[in-house]
Amino acid sequence: MRPRPVVPVLAVLAVVLVAAAAAVAAGLFATGATGTGSATGTGEMASRPVPAVSPPQRSSVTPSSWTTYNQNNARSGVDVSGTSFSPARTAWTSPPLDGHLYGQPLVDAGRVFVATENDTVYALAADTGAVLWSTHVGTPFNPGTVRGLCGDIGPTVGITSTPVIDPARGELFVVAAVQVSGNAAHHLIGLDLSTGAELMNEVIDQPGFDPAFQLQRASLALTDGRVIVGFGGNDGDCEPYHGMVVSAPENGAATSTFVVADQPGDSQGAVWMGGGAPVIDPSGNVWVSTGNSAYTTSGKPYDQSDGVLELSPTMRLLQDFAPSNWSADNRRDLDLSTPPVLLGNGLVFAIGKSSTGFVLDQASLGGVGHGLMAQPACFGHGAAAHVGDTVYTGCGGGAAAYRVTQGPPALSTLWRTSTGGGGTPIVAGGSVWTIGNGNLNEINLTTGATQQQFRLGSSPSSFPSPSAADGLILAPTTDSVMAFDGPAGLPGPPSPAPPAAG
Asked: How far apart are CA 470 and CA 108, in angstroms?
């Protein structure tokens, strides 16, 4: 055989390389190029910056965070980045996680944080959904090990509430139900945001109460260096349990506690709020709503059930409100089941199972029967977002918008939807976003019309809620997280972990 003509081939290669170099010099590899590949190779050409390596849309996403339930202490539920999601598209779905998800996804430093009923906390990359770390904090509680226990969470109860992040400490806090011999124990656990390493682990169950019957459902909050933890009962109200709020210092010092329905022969009064979090006002005080108690006949002294409470960071009762028929509400299980909404105009909006909307004065709640006004509204379900004097709340069967105004106090209905579910709404990209009937719904802020809808599948939670940060709408499903982005595209990669101390 004759040898191949090597020289002509080399000549052709030389021409190709020269043309490629000329193309780079002329800027033909522009930032508008598409594709997912990256430059590889050795030598001078591989070391030159090539704008097409990174998808151009990443640089246009405004970094933002969502470190607590409904974004901030006021629980406004508003994505402040201004990112547009018109139109939105499915960006990624996380790998299946090891348990059911009940909480709202949190976001910080390019990481998405969720926790499961298998007592595992995950950090996902916001740009891809890949698992960056996971920490299994304990063996979840098996409710089948306790006789007479009711509930609708299974097969195990682990981390049910939305965690909370303290960015200044670089720490994420969760409350995990952990199996102990024949019962449960509730551990407040702090994890390093970057690595998932355990930084604190403290049992916060209070003496004299049965932990198995105390469900930690309300999302966590932070104030004055303390983690605020709400407890209630399991679905079915099996006893014994008491509603309570525990204030646990981040440094592991002794806790303070406020107990609801803490009178002779009394019980229940859950602080559960449809999975919502306590509101923290500008003074650092804690606002919660409470469920029905065992006081169901008139003539009993008020026991802080079926009400709105303001507490100090150390759990001293500052003021309260309850409807005049609070004991009758207790008898019919028609309590205030959603978190109070504190508006910038000095008013409070409260709604619950009685399908009554209450308008209160923040400075003077007034005690029993002394709210500013009350009128028929929807069946309160989940929690709410708010912008100015407008409240976007979960309702049985969908969502609703109410305007709450001063001079004189007034409550007006703007719209109601029938999207189903009634999970907690948020506001992002100039729209309301809710989860209902297995769908993520974008709702027009002004009219309540559905503008976009994405299929998520079923959720174990009756109050599923999305979050929004880093250019993403994040929606929990049964055991994964789905992310949706807008025209700006995906965020950049997670921020590097800070250097280790020392």
From this structure: 9
Instruction: Give me the domain span that covers residue 22.
Output: 10-53
Instruction: State the SS3 of 231-267.
Output: EECCCCCCCCCECEEEEEECCCCCCEEEECCCCCCCC
Token readout for 101 is 């998800």
Lowest-pLDDT range of 9-18, 270-279, 310-319: 9-18
- Alpha-carbon distance 90 to 486, whole Å? 9
Asked if the structure places residue 5 within a domain, the reply is no
Question: Pick from 33, 107, 16: which is nearest to 69 by CA?
Answer: 107
pTM exceeds cut of 0.85: yes
Residue 435 lies in a domain: yes
The amino acid that residue 245 corresponds to is V
> How is residue 344 written in tokens?
């910038």
CA angle (263 as vertex; 260, 269 as ends), nearest 5: 30
Residue 446 lies in a domain: yes
- Measured distance CA(369)–CA(308) in Å, rounded: 12
Q: Verify that 469 and 442 share a domain, yes or no.
A: yes
Q: In 48-130, where do the E strands start and end?
A: 89-93, 106-108, 111-115, 120-125
Q: How confident is the model at residue 501 (pLDDT cuts 50, 70, 90)?
A: low
